[in-house]
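Researcher: Sit down with what I've pasted below and flag anything odd:
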Amino acid sequence: MWAAANDISSPPTAQMFQGAIASRSYLLAAFFYSLVGLGSAGSYNAALTTNVRNWNAKDHGFVVGTSVSFFGLSAFIFSQLSYIFYREDADSNPHSTVPHHSAMDTHGFLLFLAFTTGGVNLLAMFCLTDLSREPGMRMTHFGDGDNSTSSLLSNDASSARSSSSHLDDRDEEENGSESVRARPKADLSFFTNVDAWVLFAAFGLLVGTGLMYINNIGAIVVALSSAPSDSPPVSRTQSTQVSLISIFNCIGRIVTGIASDYAKRVAGIRRDVFLIGAASLFLISQLIATRVASIALLHVCTVLVGFAYGSLFSSAPVIVGNWFGIKKFGTHWGWFQWAPALGGQVFNLTFGAIADAHRPSDPEKECKGSDCFSLAFVFTAGACCVSLALLAVLYRRRRRLVSYTVVPHAS
């Protein structure tokens, strides 16, 4: 490759690129980051899809909320482990250039992460079982949206008795939809389903809002602190914010999952109501963030964003499974995972552009005050309003569809 580069371009140009890559290892680092992303997404989707397919629909909120809560809590757990076991005193390392009183043993911690995450996934290969593929077992999913009546694993005999009062087996397994009156048979292709696109847009706006806050919380702390960015007080405050996000992210996922199951069974409240609730919390947090001027008020924003982000990722997978079918849940939810990739990029670039616009002309100085980022939260507050409007439209559309549902006739 490098020989061809020398033939195509001038030797100085080729040598410049070779030196940059060799000294900084940009391509190698990017390659390893891509492996981390692929591994994380694969592990997350495999565990989530298996649990959704194996459990009854009335328990999907609990199953999804509990499963993904540990995904949200993992950042807090690993950060605490790194602080306890992989911290080096700067005084014991005279060659350290880190201005803090302690430095991270990055090499040792990365090895720990590699063996821990890799080992857990190797173990999961032999433990995770999709029971719907077992001989004599069959997955059935009756109901459109939150009007679903069951999503369970049963043997062929019980499935046959149950299916006598529902659609034929093919429609049940492929689409998970009940028969309807006064409307033609809809095109249930995922990409031609209007509800899927509306839900994706609302989900992407909310995910982008959460990721912008989470990824830039360190810069926000620096802007609100009078101390320099490399001072220990700022580092401790940043660590506190990360811990709050992780803890309340976990709490939001568990609480929303359990509450949505209970509300559905007891009061018949549809699950998309909890998605609207998460969007409302996002909007409140962003409105507060536009006026935040102290670390104390920032704590409130962080708690709200963490809980709302967890609630969002507890509600959305269950809704996707209920609305578009369990059989292809892994594929459908995989497409929804493009929302964090797209939303995160757009919203983070917006925050960076606004922060750069308010940066002092002196490169040695840091931007201080809420003016450094307040306009970014005006943008996200607007995005939350759009998302709420989309979810309201979606709620009415799904409510109209459910109102047409025919009570299955007895055989």
